[in-house]
Amino acid sequence: MEAGLKELSALIGAVRKRVTAPGRLYLVSRTSHLAEGWCDVVPALELAGDPGNAALSEAVQEAARALDVKVVWESPVDIIPLPAKWEERSLPAAIGQGEGGSALEIRHFDPYSVVLRLIARGDEPDYVAALEYVLHGWVEPARLEGLLTEVVPRMTNQTLAQDPAEFRRKFKGLRQLYRRSHEVYSPGGTRANEAASNVVTLPGT
After folding, report:
1. Are residues 39 and 33 in contact, defined by beta-carbon separation less than 8 angstroms?
2. Reported pTM
């Protein structure tokens, strides 16, 4: 079952009631898009917490079961080596910030790290989600490429189901998609999924 802004707000409220210690709940990928109004629904709420915060993870899973909401609990930090200062690049999320009940902070996971993780997985929906970050100005392509040079040398076949050369190839595919789709995209107009389907065939398809 798809989730919308109502389900996300309800989940955050329920989690706040379950946690007592300060912490960060991160919105990841399409869940950030949902909170910002870039899309209306998502297949599942993609969330993450402070590294090692088992109590928050448990609270989210309990709330999800109680509300019958599908949650994907996965942090990019557990999948790929992230560029330095990723926590500083996380962004405050407006959703749920006015609610009391805990010191839980709601933030968008560092957009650059999320895009790198999406490129690593490399499915067509991942390219679309990554492109949304770029087209809405949350990720600047030149800066992303700079962070790429920091991350790729730390990648191995153990941290990714592909080698660094494959990752670079997928990154070039996103860059090509951005350049071509930018010509037909305007905020509030053509969305990334429309641009992707109309403009270019993604690598591997």
Report:
1. yes
2. 0.83
